[in-house]
Amino acid sequence: MQQNFVLTHTISHEEELQYIEVPFHMPNGIQTLLVNYEVKSLGPEKCVVDLGIKDFIRVRGWSGGARREFYIGKNLATPGYVSGHCMKESGRFFLGYEIPKEGCQVIITVSLEGEKEEVGWLIGDLHLHSTHSDGSYTIEENGKIAEEKGLNFIALTDHNTISQNFADESAGNILFIPGMELTTYKGHCNLYGVKDPLKDFRATNWEEITNLLQEARNNGCKISINHPFDQYCPWEWEWDVDYDWVEVWNGPWTEGNERALQWWQEQLVQGRKLVVVGGSDCHRPHPYVKQGMPTTWVYSNAKSVSSILDAIHKGHVYLTYAPWGPQMEFTCGQAKIGDTIKAKGKMELTVNKLQEGDIVKVISNIGIEQEFKMANVQRLELSWDIEERTFYRVEIWRYFLEVEGYLMAALSNPIYIQQGE
After folding, report:
1. What is the DSSP letter of 55?
2. If 276 and its partner were Cys, which of 248, 338, 354, 358 is the partner (CB 3.0–4.6 Å)?
3. For residue 414, with 0-12 CB atoms within 10 Å meaning exposed, 13-18 middle and 19 or more buried, which class applies?
């Protein structure tokens, strides 16, 4: 949805050095506000008109006469303007400065863009570091590399810092998800969706870590436990902390990821509904740890932070080793990955971009139910009737010459099955 309108306002000389407010109406559901303006003197003298904008709470930006246009989005804005939810119902431009005796006319052109419905699958990296902590890539460099790889979003999760969330740097069409990696001596977790999630990061005992996670939750964060079985920095706190998701795939597929996968399967068999995610944890140039490896695929209704995080929370997620990895559609009627269905119907699985030798596994609460080793075809289509199971999920394994063995190439969250009435 895109709307455009033009406001024309005349300023008299008597209003010079005042802040003239020009109200405008904002429809619901607006994601981005793009503004440009033109000033026409009504006499021979030149004039200068400054421009700013406010919502019903506060001033959202001011560029004076330095800019002829600006934008405000949920996550990015022109320097000098504050990003975030656009003005609800109404807003006001304010104008002023040097006005000739005959006055002047200001023409303000406004373009409004709303959320797009049913964007579908968006891809990104949920775990990246920058020069704001111990990474060597700037925010702009991370964004540029992500865009070159075809990603739609990235989360900058620098260690125990939030400065990256307030930086002015940006990169093309990449959506930046605010993040922070809460890094303690007994484990790491990512806090998503809030620019300033914590006032202090230090936790050395159980009471402190639970209080920090409660603070993050109260501030609106989604919480993901990172690389819980990593060799060097595992999750050593108890598991009965407050969290939403678990990062079972961190960087290249390793023994730590394998242990996380086995643990997750045990949780699913016990009846838990637990969303798993992945992230590269890329800090600096490395032959195997790279942006977008693994890639998180999210079925989202809009390319916005809130929509993407909401879709992840619903489990509408699968992971691939890279943006060019296998692509899957796993459904049961209208239900998709992450949904819960009744114990009837037919499961449908379509996988594209397979390679010869790839192994596709369909797994349930009783273990591996189907397994196919691909010949010289790049596409697999399967369907089967739902049995007395509590979930189905999919794994795809691929032979990689670099390790002379099979590694995970794609991994889905489950479709859950409701038993009984």
Report:
1. -
2. 248
3. buried
Give the Cα separation of 176 and 305 in Å (integer). Answer: 8
Which tokens hold the place of 60? 């959202």
Which string of b and e fits 215-233 if b means at least 16 CB within 10 Å? ebbeeebbbbbbbbbbeeb
Q: What is the pLDDT of residues 35-92, one digit of tens each?
A: 999 999 999 998 999 999 998 778 999 998 888 899 888 777 889 898 876 666 678 8
Lowest mean pLDDT among 93-97, 184-188, 216-220, 357-361: 93-97
Q: DSSP states of 218-257 as a string?
A: HTT-EEEE--TT-SSS---S-S-S--SEEEEEESS--HHH
The first and second tokens of residue 112, run together, are 């409004």
Residues 128, 302, 195: CA angle, nearest 5 degrees:
40
377: which DSSP letter? -
The model's pTM is: 0.76
* For residue 294, cis peptide bond before it (omega within 30 degrees of 0): yes
Per the CB < 8 A criterion, the answer to whether 361 and 397 are in contact is yes
What are 333-356's pLDDT values in tens digits? 999 999 999 888 899 999 999 999
Taking each continuous run of H as one helix and of E as one strand, the counts in the chain are 4, 27
Domains and CATH numbers, the chain: 2-114 (2.60.120.380), 117-324 (3.20.20.140), 326-421 (2.60.40.10)
Nearest partner of 282 among 131, 167, 115, judged by Cα:
131
The percent of the chain in helix, strand and coil, each rounded to the nearest 5, is 15, 45, 45
Q: pLDDT exceeding 70 applies to what percent of the chain?
A: 95
* Contact between 400 and 371 (Cβ < 8 Å): no
Cα separation, 187 vs 238, in Å, equals 10
C-alpha–C-alpha distance, residues 77 and 323, integer Å: 28
> In sequence order, what are the beta bridge partners of 64?
51
Q: Tokens for 71?
A: 């934008």
Helix, strand, or coil (residue 24)? strand
Cα 114 to chain centroid distance, Å, stands at: 18
**Alpha helical stretches, state H, 270-333:** 305-313
- Residues 127-155 have pLDDT tens digits of 999 999 999 999 999 999 999 999 999 99
Report the pLDDT value the prediction gives residue 292, as an integer from 0 to 100. 97
Question: Per-residue pLDDT tens for 273-303?
Answer: 999 999 999 999 999 999 999 999 999 999 9
Report which secondary-structure segment, H or E, holds 419: none
